[in-house]
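Priority: low. Protein: MD-2-related lipid-recognition domain-containing protein. Input follows.
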Amino acid sequence: MKNFIFAFILFAHLLTINVAPFKLNKRTTFYPCSVQSVDLFIVSIVPDPPESGKGETFYVSVTLTKHEIIKNKTFLGISYAGLDGTSLGDPYYSTFTESYKAGDLFSVTLSDVPTPQLPDAYYIGVTVGDPTNDPKNPLDIYGCVYAEVIRG
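Result:
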């Protein structure tokens, strides 16, 4: 019992002075996009932060309030960009395999999403929408979040 108490106090002390750093403070946080009238959603990723050239798993949960998800039409898109807006690699798109009515909560897991070669600072964008036939506006975006990742 004395060893347990000693180990607990030592561990707490190490954490207090940050000798044993953890990646808990390096989680990627997603924020609302500046696109007007779109819904927000929750995104978590593994590994976090992403690693260049390795497959990433995205967990996405959302309730779209104004739009329906249409099977084999509505897509979930993931893209990476440099801080200057330059695209990093090809965007990843996946259509939904089920339909959902507006107001229904749904969760989607995308595995093995390709991760491009990443610089020390970049953006990750996640969108939900439908394609259009309008070349000036090729997407109707229903939901959008982004994260700014700075490794250091």
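Helices lie at 2-16. The domain at 23-150 is CATH 2.60.40.10 (Immunoglobulin-like).
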